[in-house]
Design a protein that fits this description.
Shape of chain A: globular
Oligomer: heterodimer
Largest sheet of chain B: 7 strands, antiparallel
Distance between the termini of chain B: 105 Å
Number of strands of chain B: 10
CATH class of chain A: Alpha Beta
Strand content of chain B: 5-15%
Number of helices of chain B: 14
Structural class of chain A: mainly beta
Shape of chain B: rod-shaped
Order of helices and strands of chain A: EEEEEHEEEEEHEEEEHEH
Radius of gyration of chain B: 38 Å
CATH superfamily of chain A: Mitochondrial biogenesis AIM24
C-alpha cells in the first residue's frame, strides 16, 4: 500500500494506492474518488451494536467502507478526505492503541481494529460524548484534524482547551477542570478545560470546530 | 527415545515461566521511546518482554511507584525512574501481589482501597443517574398524559366527526332495507338509551356489518358499528342494549380520539428511534394507526363498561345483559384459544374480570330496582341475521331474491 497526504496542511487529502489483494478501511463519506475496478464493501464499524453506539453516542458514522483491490487486477487508487479544513496525520500502530475524539478517524489499514469504549462523564461534559473510538492492532491509521495537527509526548499533567484534543494514548486519563479560578475561567473565555494525566502521546488540533461555529454565529444574526 | 524424553522433561522442569499479561513499556532506551510488551512479574522484578526478543527488567524496590488511571481508569502503571511499564490486564495487579517488597505491598493495599472507594462512588453515581432517569421518565409520562387529556378537552368535536367520516369509508355497512327488523331494534334501543351528546356535532347512529366476526365498535363522532356475528350469538335483547350502552360510552368519553392522539405520539417516537430509516417508520406508523382504530385499551374498556352500566340503569334496562354478553365473549375466546393470552397482553380485560366488575356494580344498586322489559320479537331478529352468512351482505341479498 502506497500512501501520500497531499494539499496539507489546510486541505489535506489522503491518496492511497492499493496493490492487488490490499484493503484500506475508511470512514463513511470520506471517499472523494477511486479507481473504478476497486471493490467497495460497507460494514458496520466494529459490529452492529458497537456501530450503533458509535453512531448515536459517539457522533460517528454507523458504517465504514472497505476498499479492496481485486487479485489479478492492476493497482488502484482511492482518494480520501475529511469534511472540514485541516491537516491529516499518519500513525503507525505496532500492537498498541490510541483513543480518538469524534470525527478524528479518517482511515486505517485492515490490521487495525476499531472499538467503541466508555469515555466517562468528563468527556461527556466536555462535549465529546460518552463513548470514544479506540484504534488498536498493527498497521497505519490516518487521523484528520481541524487546522494543523501537533503531537506531544506528555508525562504528568497537561491541560487542553475542550475542542482542541484530537487523540490520546490509553495510558492518558481525562478529567474535567476549570481553566483557572471561577472568575478567570468564565470571564477569561476559557471556561471548562480537559485535564490530561498520565504518560504517552497526545494529538492536538490547532483549531476548534466549536470555536469556529461560535465565531461564525456572531456574523449570522 | 526414552532418554531424550527424560532430558526434555528436566529442561521443562528447570525453566519456570512466570505468569504474564499484555501491556507496554515507556523507556528512553527504546528507539520509539515506547513499545508493546508481554509483562511478567517475579518476587523481585517486573519483566517486559518485547517483540524483538529483548527483555527489560524493573526492580520491585522502594523507588517503584504504582498508579492506576489512563483513559479507561483501569490502566496499572509502574514507574521506576524514567521507565514506565503498564498493563490494562485485570490480572496485572494480582501478579504484583507476588512481590515481597513492603513498600510495593503498601502501595498495592492503598490502590485496592482506592479501587473500592472508586467503585463505591461509581455505584452511587450510576444509582443517582438511574434514579433521576426513572423520576424524569415518570414525570414525562405523567406530563404527556396530562397534555393529552388537555388536548382532547380543548379539541373541537368537529375533529371527531372528521375522523369518523374518514374511518367509515372503510366500513362496508349493509342497508337498512336488508335487515329491517334488526335495524329497527338497534335504533329503538339507541333511542331508549338516550345518550346525551356533549356537543351538537356528535350524532349517534348505528351501522350494521354482515360479518361472522363477534364484534362491535364505536367511532369518534357517534357512529356505532355492530357485526351480525355478534347478534347471532346473543340470546336476549338486553345483551344488545348492553353492547350499545358500552359503545356509546366510548364515544361519550372520546376514547377513539384519545387513541388516535396516542398513536400519533407513538408514530413520532418510532420515527425518532429509527432515525433516517423512514420507510420502516412509515410501516410502524401505519400499524400503530390501524391498531388504534380497532382497539381501545383495557382501562378504556373498563371505563366504557362502567359508563354503559349507568346508561342502562338510566334507561331502566336490566344490566344483567352485560353478564350474559361477557359469557358469550368468554365462550368465543375459549373456542379460539384466546383465553390462553395473559390479560395484560390483550386489548380487552378478561370476560371473567368484567363479569365480576359488573356484578359488583349490580350489588351496589338499591334492591328495589325495577327494569322495563324490552318489547321485541328477538327470535325474529335472530332469524333475520341467521339467514346471512357473514360475507358482506351479498349472500343475504341473493337469498332474498330467490
Amino acid at each position: 500500500m502506497k500512501t501520500e497526504i497531499k494539499n496539507a496542511t489546510s486541505f489535506a487529502t489522503l491518496f492511497v494506492t492499493l496493490a492487488p489483494g490490499e484493503t484500506v478501511v475508511a470512514e463513511a463519506q470520506a471517499m472523494a474518488s477511486r479507481s473504478s475496478h476497486l471493490h467497495m464493501t460497507t460494514h458496520f464499524a466494529g459490529g452492529l451494536f458497537r456501530a450503533l453506539i458509535r453512531r448515536f453516542l459517539g457522533k460517528e458514522s454507523l458504517f465504514v467502507n472497505h476498499f479492496t483491490c481485486p487479485q489479478g487486477a492492476l493497482e488502484g487508487e482511492v482518494v480520501l478526505t475529511q469534511p472540514f479544513l485541516g491537516d491529516m496525520l499518519k500513525i503507525d500502530l505496532n500492537d498498541d492503541s490510541i483513543c480518538l475524539q469524534p470525527g478524528a478517524f479518517v482511515a486505517c489499514g485492515s490490521g487495525v481494529r476499531l472499538r467503541v469504549n466508555w469515555a466517562g462523564f468528563a468527556s461527556f461534559f466536555n462535549g465529546d460524548g460518552l463513548f470514544r473510538l479506540e484504534a488498536s492492532g498493527v498497521g497505519p491509521l490516518w487521523v484528520g484534524g481541524f487546522g494543523g495537527i501537533s503531537v506531544r509526548e506528555m508525562d504528568g499533567e497537561f491541560v487542553v482547551d475542550s475542542g482542541h484534543l484530537l487523540g490520546y494514548a490509553p495510558t492518558v486519563g481525562l478529567s474535567m477542570a476549570l481553566a483557572g479560578g471561577i472568575f478567570s475561567s468564565f470571564f477569561g473565555g476559557e471556561g471548562i478545560v480537559t485535564k490530561l494525566r498520565g504518560r504517552g502521546r497526545v494529538l492536538l488540533q490547532s483549531r476548534s470546530l466549536k470555536g469556529m461555529a461560535h465565531w461564525t454565529n456572531g456574523y449570522l444574526t | 527415545m526414552f532418554g531424550i524424553f527424560t532430558e526434555r522433561l528436566i529442561v521443562f522442569h528447570v525453566m519456570i515461566i512466570p505468569p504474564s499479561c499484555l501491556g507496554g513499556i515507556f523507556s528512553p532506551q527504546l528507539p520509539d521511546r515506547r513499545a508493546s510488551a508481554t509483562i511478567a512479574v517475579t518476587s523481585n522484578e517486573i519483566i517486559a518482554g518485547l517483540a524483538d526478543g529483548s527483555q527489560h527488567h524493573m526492580p520491585l524496590d522502594h523507588t517503584l511507584r504504582l498508579e492506576v488511571g489512563g483513559a479507561s481508569g483501569r490502566m496499572v502503571m509502574c514507574r521506576h525512574g524514567d521507565v514506565m511499564i503498564y498493563s490494562e490486564d485485570p490480572h496485572f495487579l494480582g501478579l504484583l501481589q507476588a512481590c515481597d517488597e513492603p513498600h510495593v505491598r503498601s502501595q498495592l493495599t492503598c490502590l485496592e482501597a482506592n479501587k473500592k472507594r472508586h467503585r463505591r462512588m461509581m455505584g452511587l453515581i450510576w444509582t443517582s443517574v438511574l434514579a433521576t432517569l426513572f423520576v424524569l421518565a415518570g414525570l414525562a409520562w405523567w406530563s404527556a398524559k396530562r397534555a393529552l387529556h388537555l388536548a382532547i378537552t380543548h379539541m373541537p368535536y368537529t375533529v371527531d366527526v372528521m375522523l369518523e367520516k374518514s374511518a367509515m369509508g372503510s366500513v362496508n355497512a349493509v342497508s337498512a332495507e336488508q335487515y329491517p327488523k334488526t335495524m329497527a331494534l338497534l335504533n329503538s334501543l339507541l333511542k331508549q338509551l338516550k345518550p346525551e351528546s356533549k356537543d351538537k356535532a356528535i350524532q349517534y347512529k348505528i351501522a350494521l356489518v354482515d360479518s361472522a366476526e363477534i364484534n362491535a365498535f364505536a367511532l369518534p363522532g357517534g357512529q356505532v358499528v355492530v357485526f351480525t356475528g355478534l347478534l347471532r350469538d346473543m340470546t336476549s335483547p338486553e345483551q344488545l342494549a348492553a353492547t350499545l350502552a358500552h359503545e356509546v360510552s366510548h364515544v361519550d368519553l372520546r376514547h377513539g380520539t384519545e387513541r388516535l392522539l396516542l398513536s400519533m405520539g407513538a408514530f413520532t417516537a418510532a420515527r425518532i428511534l429509527l432515525g433516517d430509516i423512514s420507510a420502516g417508520a412509515d410501516v410502524v406508523g401505519s400499524l400503530v394507526t390501524s391498531g388504534a382504530m380497532n382497539n381501545y385499551s383495557q382501562k378504556q374498556e373498563d371505563e366504557a363498561d362502567e359508563e354503559g352500566f349507568k346508561h342502562l340503569i338510566k334507561a331502566k334496562i336490566d344490566p344483567k345483559g352485560f353478564i350474559s354478553l361477557f359469557d358469550i365473549f368468554d365462550k368465543a375466546m375459549k373456542e379460539h384459544h384466546l383465553d390462553k393470552i395473559p390479560e395484560w397482553l390483550g386489548t380487552h380485560p378478561e370476560p371473567k374480570s368484567r363479569i365480576e366488575h359488573v356484578q359488583s356494580l349490580i350489588k351496589a344498586l338499591p334492591k328495589d330496582m325495577a327494569y322495563h322489559p324490552i318489547d321485541v320479537d328477538f327470535a325474529a331478529v335472530k332469524l333475520e341475521v341467521s339467514r346471512c352468512r357473514g360475507d358482506g351482505g351479498t349472500a343475504c341479498q341473493r337469498e332474498e331474491k330467490q
